[in-house]
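Handoff note, outgoing to incoming analyst
You'll be picking up this chain. Sequence as last confirmed:
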Amino acid sequence: MTADQLAALADQIDGRLDNENADRQTICEDVAARLRQLAAAAPGLTAQQRDVLVLMAADALEYRVEPVAAKCADCDAHPALLCADHAADLDRAERYRTVLRQLGVTEVTP
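Most recent structure output, in case you need it:
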């Protein structure tokens, strides 16, 4: 997706939102559909790039998730049994998984 395509989409949205009679739900649905079209037209990963991405993701997820399983003194002391640092690690791991799903990668497990 190029900057020009995004700028054109932004201009289209601005133009439609300027119409006070416009249905905002319809505009949002149209924009979502257009973004999906642009994303589908974007060049994908090569098989080699995808394989490397899977390896990188597995390493990153293992780094973030494995220490949480071991827990720490702060985890034991916290009412939710998960300290802020380990909770942040799990949040970051979930963001990694979200990006991977967006790229069509689903088989990565730490």
